[in-house]
Amino acid sequence: MNVKDHGLEIRNQAIGMLNTGMTQKDVAIKLQVSLRSIKRWWCKQKARKISKTVAHPGRNSSVQKAAKIIISKSLGKRYKSTRKLADIVTSRDYLISHSTVHRYLLDNTGAKSYKRTKRPRLTEKKKENDSNLQNLAKNGL
After folding, report:
1. How far apart are CA 59 and CA 28, in angstroms?
2. Looking at residue 50, what is its pLDDT?
3. Quick one: 11 and 48 in the same domain?
4. Which is more confidently placed, 29 or 4?
């Protein structure tokens, strides 16, 4: 029998036999299927069971639901530093560092960090030019 001809019915039957305690060799002989196919089906079945029952490793997030809401509301306000956001969240009894706020904003909202550009201050010469231009405009020239 060709491997592609094995339907789901035979595969499920083989898995059921293996679950009852039969050996892979006995199942292969009884169903007239190659031992390699039985091994492959059994490995896939075990992998499915493991992936469903194993908890994902890693530490739980320190950003709780209320803190996420506070951070997401503050996204609309420009020029708010992560330190200020962390202070807001901490004042509402959620202990979060500014680096946690920064990581959350990067990962979940796509917000990127930025640095405000410094604008040059007006020099005395520019102030005089501006006042001269204003005077000319008032005089109608």
Report:
1. 44
2. 55
3. yes
4. 29
CB within 8 A of 1, min separation 6: which ones?
A: 32, 33
Rounded Cα distance, 38 and 124, in Å: 88
Q: Average pLDDT, stretch 122-129? A: 84
Tell me which residue range forms the domain holding 48: 3-53
* CB 30 within 8 Å of CB 71: no
Residues 10 and 49 in one domain: yes
Please, what is the end-to-end C-alpha distance for the chain in angstroms?
Answer: 101
Q: How many domains does the chain have?
A: 2
The dihedrals phi and psi of 133, each to the nearest 5 degrees, come to: -65, -40
Residue 128 is assigned to a structural domain of this protein: no
